[in-house]
Amino acid sequence: MKIGLFIPCYIDAFYPDAGIATLELLEKLGQDVEYPLDQTCCGQPMGNSGCNSDAAAAEALFVRNFARYDKIVMPSGSCTHHVRDNFDAIPQTDEVRHVRENTYELVEFLHDILKVDAFPWAEFNHTVGLHNSCGTLRALRTASMSELGEKPFSKPMDLLSKVKGIRFATPKRPDECCGFGGTFSVTEEAVSAKMGVDKVRDHHQAGAEYIVSADSSCIMHQQGCAERAGVPIRFIHIAQILNGASQ
Amino acid sequence: MSDKPVNHARAAEHFIEDTPHLQFHDERLWDMRQKRDAQMHILPEWQELREEASRIKEHTLSRLPEYLEQFETNARKNGIHVHWARDGAEHNRIVGEILKAHNARNLIKSKSMVTEECDMRPYLAKQGVTVTETDLGERIQQLDDQLPSHIVVPAVHKLTADVAKIFAKDYHTDPEIRDPHLLAEAQRQAARPVILHADAGMTGGNFVVAETGTFVVCTNEGNADLSATVPNLHIATIGIERLVPRMADMGVFIRLLSRSALGSPITQYTTHFRGPQKGGEMHVVLVDNGRSARLGMEDFWTSLKCIRCGACMNTCPVYRRSGGLSYGAVYSGPIGAIIDPTFNERKYSTLPYASTLNGSCTNVCPVKINIHEQLYKWRRVLVQHHEMPFVKREIMHMAGKLMGQPRMYRAAIKATEVSLSTMPRFVLYNWLNPWGKHRENPHPVKQTFNDWYRKNRETAAKPAAAPETKK
Ligand code: SF4
């Protein structure tokens, strides 16, 4: 199985450590991973804002970069959601369909495809609050959602609980959106920031030292809100903990 | 009516600055959402009920003309006068004429969003008819000259102190009252004589049953029953989408409605109206006002399944933090954001953007309307119809071009060591200004992932998959 690694623009520019951790983790798990150098973006910001036709160039490039891989893996739920569910600015050829059907968010890839049952190298002696981005929670269904009253399940939690020393804190509103929402974070800046502050306070009051998430975009937003509001909490991508980061 | 786009973002910012109101609003609605969850957990068949409700509504909507005619025939047999209104103006004219024929000057009215849609009160005022809202929240909004901010709890954005102030002005009560029960009593005392001497009563209708020619009104205050039964003349204004085929369908909807709305098992009063009382008259005005046009919209017709429970508003993190009035429309929250643009695309063009697309609304909706997917689709439609602010459109256009050209994209990022200033200027200026208003910017890094990879895995790195120029 040949894996193509996609590193979304946020991670490339602001959270390279999350990208490195993703690559190293997949390698530790014995995977054959390649990162096509000429990648840019999955097209989500354009699609999300309604300017779908403007996403065409990014989507076409994405397909050129990744059509030759068996699986495409990325450490981002919202980008995976875009590719899987909304990637339609370009004609739906066999190649495009192949890419859409074989794109995975990191957690679901580890959990559903590789079925990883141990991270012997990982130890994290901290209390963490898990932030499920809405993209992973409600679109990719990597965890149960409170709206449906279904039996609780959580793929990221399954993975994290295999890490030595880790403890969990549960916020009062565990699956409320943090307010990032792509372009929403700037077009509705006030509501977005308020949602972000509420979110980090909720985690902090529950006793979390870290907020861990599979989405760097949510982290970027929440971190910005926490720092401005003076909420003492730290942020980390799930790939970093699973790859053995200790802090 | 002005076409100027509603500035939801600015109104929301305003609402957020008022901490006491914001906090109360958010917590009160979240509490309703939690009560709804508790009710859902009690019923193991919850998802089946939703499925069934959705199925019944979709079936009805797909054969709406037939069922409407069936209702009309049966309602007439029951002695109900049935009227058809194409739009708000026609609705108001019909109501005005009925009132005139009875020489009715005092109309008492229980909550009905459709009459708000038709802007009926000012019309009737001009005809010399006094309209008094009998629902507590709706009355508060009427006295304050505001639209309802929530479809179930119209004055949910007001604190007790706000209500005390409004009542003091109109009912001459003590503006310092902080006991909601005292305020409710003040309303009761003020409303009772009006109700007793009213010439006509008006209600909405939650459900209309085709098979029996009857309709159902659900309230918690009993005010609809008074409005409908104290005067001899009862007019019910109902949107044409409120139909269900059979009486047997009602069980599904009655079980879902109040549980989804307030988290109570059932409304205090669930009244079936089967015909006029002795010596009285009953009129039903069936209002289209854009609904049949919406029925023809491939991506948006299922919004007509809505039973107006408000659950999508209660769960919506944006609605809870921006308040219903910020939507500048009769319908607010997620459901408003998908139906308001069908009334006026330009004016409500910002509303589909007042969402993070988190999808919570879709998953609480008792009739399974794919609300967040419709919000996403609306954005596409609005861009196609040029109802998007120019600057934003331009940014996306340029960003879209850049994202298609890896070399240019990399060059833009490489321009300097500090990644924050690496974003092309147009993105930087338009993006990070609002970003930094209430948030710190992301931290600069020494090297991008791409740089790191070239340095550390260069040998493994394969050349680009294909040339970026067109074949
Ligand atoms: S859209 Fe659904 S959740 Fe929202 S008010 Fe209508 S029925 Fe209720």
UniProtKB/TrEMBL annotation, chain A:
Residues 4-83, 128-221 form the Cysteine-rich domain. GO terms for molecular function: oxidoreductase activity. GO terms for cellular component: cytosol. InterPro entries: Cys_rich_dom. This is (Fe-S)-binding protein. Pfam families: CCG. It comes from the Bacteria.
Automatic annotation (TrEMBL), chain B:
GO terms for biological process: lactate metabolic process. PROSITE patterns: 4FE4S_FER_1, 4FE4S_FER_2. GO terms for molecular function: 4 iron, 4 sulfur cluster binding; metal ion binding. Residues 297-318 form the 4Fe-4S ferredoxin-type domain. It comes from Komagataeibacter xylinus. This is Lactate utilization protein. SUPFAM superfamilies: alpha-helical ferredoxin, NagB/RpiA/CoA transferase-like. Keywords: 4Fe-4S, Electron transport, Iron, Iron-sulfur, Metal-binding, Repeat, Transport. It holds the Pfam family Fer4_8.
